[in-house]
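Worked problem 6 (solution included).
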Amino acid sequence: MRATDIIMKKRGIKIRDKDGKQVLASPTVLSKEEIKFIVDEYTAGRIPDYQMSAFTMAVYFNGMNFEETGALTNAMLHSGDVIELHGKDGLPENEIYVDKHSTGGVGDKISLPLAPIVAVCGVKDPMMSGRALGHTGGTLDKLESIEGYNVNLSESQFRAGIKKDGFAMMGQTPNVAPADKKMYALRDVTATVESVPLITSSILSKKVAEGADALVFDVKYGSGAFMKTIPDCEELATFLVKTAQAMGKKATAFMTDMETPLGYKIGNFLEIEETVECLQGKGPEDVMELTYALGAEMVFLAGKADSPEKARKMCEEAVSSGKALQKFLDNVKTQGGNPEKLMSQIGNRRSPHHTQLVAEKDGYIKINAFATGLAGVYLGVGRNKSDDPVCADAGIILGKRTNDFVKKGDVIMDIYGKDGECLEPSLKKLREAISYSDEKFPENKLIYKIIK
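Solution. The predicted structure is:
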């Protein structure tokens, strides 16, 4: 086989129709062997980046059917190690291990309070997370803003953390789905992120490799999401559920709103702060609602409750009892952090480089998630390239949110940067993120649809 032939096959061939216009002939469906070949050879370094870029661009424009997507997921999954949990290092043999995955957004810190909440309810959660890329935040960067917190766990440390605390948080190791790690970084810089088959295979190859038996997906739509429209979001959610089920996994997908940022705090340590507030029962309404909804489904899929309604009550009791916060602090200690120091920094840790965005006129406001996320990249919250550093103490605190009424001069945002130079371009971008109206803006439902 040759990579060129496979690329050409997926790309299709231009022909002339009866009117003499050039049209694209239907691209041919790739075989499992062809997909495995291009993934294996790229992972081994025998296919260069420019050919894989051409392949992913062909997939971006022409798509893949369900069988091709499954073949791509399997090839990426088996490009490296698959972590085994059942009966290993003292973990239960017959447990249903459950994890959650979000397709990314702005202010989306749901994984952080979610894991300790479901752990209190008896769920074993193997959580392998990612870093910030583009306008979206990264769970690992948020966790590493906790001084001493180690996300670079070995497989045995990962299993030990799950056994002790009910969950562990780690990054993707070089040996877990290495094809995805290479392809994900390439897609980010070649504008091929927003492809349903590529997103599906990327997510599932990691989630199956980490050892999860059941998965809950938070698939976002809106300005701050990769899927901008509801139909595109539903397509991805359906692909994820169907592909996961075909691989023998239980799966549920929630379609959720990302037109405006989640919660009040956007940043790395700032989102750790809001996590603690959620675990104290004082979190923003939207963050709490989404956390409880996703948590209830995880508890239900794990078999710890006989209905989602009972599962939700268990999640709410985990917070009200204080056990979820304690579970989070236990995990901080297990993974190298200092819980007491962390709690002393809540509300007190800010970058010294600070400015404010004030309202330019009276009216109801709307905050665009995408523009806010891009401003966060300027501030140092996120990355333009996968190897860019992030600033733990940079970020944005919203004083007002979408559909709040403001008067001219009211503080809408407090802005914290990695240095003084980044504040002005960030402020310019954040001004572009704000719309004003004499009437309230239409709002999306937080949870639009659940696909099971």
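Discussion: The chain is about 45% helix and 15% strand.
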